[in-house]
Amino acid sequence: MASRPVPSPSDLPEPPELSELDVVADEIDDGLPPGMQPDGPPDGPLNGPPGAPPYEPDEAELTLGEHLNEIRQRLTVAVLTMVLTTVVALIFASTILDYLLEPGRVALPEFRPIYTELLGFIGAYIKISLMLGLAGAMPVIVYQIYAFIHPGLTRAEQKWVMPIVGLATVAFACGGAFAFFIAWPPALTFLLNFGQEIADPQVRINNYIDMLTRFVIWTGIVFELPLFLMGLGAIGIVTSKKLMGMWRWAIIGSFLLAALITPSIDPVTQTFVAVPTMGLYILGIVLVRLVENRTVIPVIESDLDDDEPDGQPA
What we know:
- The chain is mainly α.
- The protein has 11 helices and no strands.
- The longest helix is centred in the middle third of the chain and has 39 residues.
């Protein structure tokens, strides 16, 4: 079998000039359908349905190092704010501590707390200052967190984040006020007067502040129940009908929760906490009723149905 002759270098065709390649590329680009031109923003099938806003690249996207630098700056602002508010709280901590002891004096006129360790009073003093400093710096801390996550949120999420944070803050403050002004005085009256004919109460100030702060904080968390239920209803986990069918368990759970967070074991104080908890549960049912028809799952299903080609079942 005869072999094919190998062409010499002089017989090979000359390579095309770069200008000729550019002309060919332009002709290919002109033949592409609209929306797939490489020189323009993709506005066709490659970038969403027709009528969608034109694609705009995110020029403000940060690198990992820039994200870490932003985190460091925002943490610095939050920490410095908390240090400042704590220093201010230290100035007024003595007055505030005396105000927190007032319910004890009302329950027992000769009430005067004691401390049995050298750092007992100083520990309570600093604890109150730190809590007040954290509370005072919380708006700045929340803003720093929101400003950091804001670029990654959709417009719908940006619309709801701040109202939810505001409602959660108001609910927590209402719970703390309810605990201190309504539920704490009868609890102290029971604890300080029960068995007084046998023994005199000698309350350590650290013990008093610890019980009070735990009670206020946990009651504030319980007051977040309606927002928590609304969130579950918004994502389709619970429905108002299902929650209404669990009303017996809600009553039992309210009293069990009241027994866990109240400092007193008397039924009067626990009822003061259990009844508002049931009211919060009912409010949660109302909020779930408002959002349960706007769950994420039906929206996704409707979008999929719209994308089905004509002539095929959804």
